[in-house]
Amino acid sequence: xxxxxxxxxxxxxxxxxxxxFDFIEDAVVWVKDHDGRYRWVNRAFLMNYTQAASxxxxxxxxxxxxxxxxxxxPYLADQFRMDDEQVLAGHxxxxxxxxxxxxxxxxxxxxxxKIPLRNGKREIIGTxxxxxxxxxxxxxxxxxxxxxxVLNYLSSHYQSAITNRELARxxxxxxxxxxRKFLRNFHLTPQKYLRKLRMRLASRSLVYTDHTLxxxxxxxxxxDQSHFSREFRRHFGRTPREYRExxxxxxxxxxxxxx
Length: 259
Known about the structure:
With 259 residues, this protein is an alpha+beta fold. The chain contains eleven helices and five strands; from the N terminus they run αββαααβββααααααα.
């Protein structure tokens, strides 16, 4: 490990095109130094951490300078660090298909790429990576074997009230058996999954569209703006308006990590 060398190298390293990555909604992008500390992340990743960590990691300042062992469960951090060591040795990770944790508590199939970063002397000073949903590459993979019908139904009907009985019927199971199986696979109840799905879609809409708060609320399955604002604040620790203003203002600075 370099003693302070990586910090000095990154302090002098500009990222003139970094802002472009803040406009790619489904791409999580990050840069780490030689010691595995996050030095830059894009907005999509910061938003993902905000949702995954109940807003305790929602500020950029609370992510930069930290390692995966401070931001992710140990079993994931070990995996990320092993990747980093390979990349720091000069290898690249190209179009690897893997499961990546999502903000709603599930995992999705992603395509991940990682490369070494070099200074002017061609010395490796860190790593950079990007991961995107596999579907974005025009390919298909099972998101959760046996649950495809239910997940597709939730994605298509999240604007409406959905009961566990409806979902169990799609699986040809009793309600109790379905609830147990869903919880075992996703570590969330079906209704909590639905709420997180609505919150994720609402947060994206607030940042990436100009829809009014009422329009966002209704389009994401909330009865009215007041209900939406209460639930959103409970989930993120910010009102929808504050959330929109925060990410609009920090768009050129923020980012994502987690790999």
